[in-house]
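Lecture 7 notes: from sequence to structure.
We start with the chain below.
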Amino acid sequence: MDFRAALLEQTRAFGELIRSADPSTPVPTCPEWTLKQLFRHVGRGSRWAAQIIGERRMTPVDPREVRDGKPPDDPDAAIDWLNAGPRAVIAAVDRVGSERVWTAAGPRPAGWWIRRLLHEAVVHRADAALAVGADYDVPVEVAADGISEWIELMSIAAGRAGPPPLDRGRTMHLHATDDGLGPAGEWTVVNAEDGVTWTHDHGKGDVALRGAVKDLLLAIMRRRSAADAGIEIFGDQAVWEDWLQRTPF
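Predicted structure tokens for the same chain:
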């Protein structure tokens, strides 16, 4: 998958969804936020990452110190400001190359940020769509990678603060029903001797979820409940509920 092109496209689609909406519209999936705050969060987030990369930082940037971190008042200029952020990230990665910089998952090659910001845009586009009552769709390969990236992040963070997302000895399996995904549409997460790990293997879990990949993404990101998304759940639903409670976005 071309993560760069996907980042640019998902950011553009996010902006177009918000362009004509009332900026004071509440965002139910981001409590106490409005569309204006969501828009600023996504746009400033790209610049925040670009600054971390460009300055080759090993510590995060204070959000208050992000350069050009506030969108213009003019709606068209604000959309240009939004779309310029990912381009700045890509340009910074091209300058820095494979050099490691700060990330929430520990030092990583600078290009790590492109994939992270892609899925940030994907999920916040869902937030905006749910807020304005618009249809939401995403390419299946992007949604599938979003699930993989999130499980990977949660596996890295497991147990750092609070209980791990799965109790010791527990397993969770997700199965996407979309055609053509193959192993990329299967996820098995376990908590065993090596801690929380995951694979694309097919197998049973203490809990298993089956549904369209887009719906699985929205469910694991706590944007829609499994029931509302029409996802089938088999086994011990408490294992799934524990995962959700322990992996806030």
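Points to note: Strands lie at 100-101, 108-109, 171-176, 186-192, 195-199, 207-211, 232-235. Residues 53 and 92 are 6 Å apart (CA to CA).
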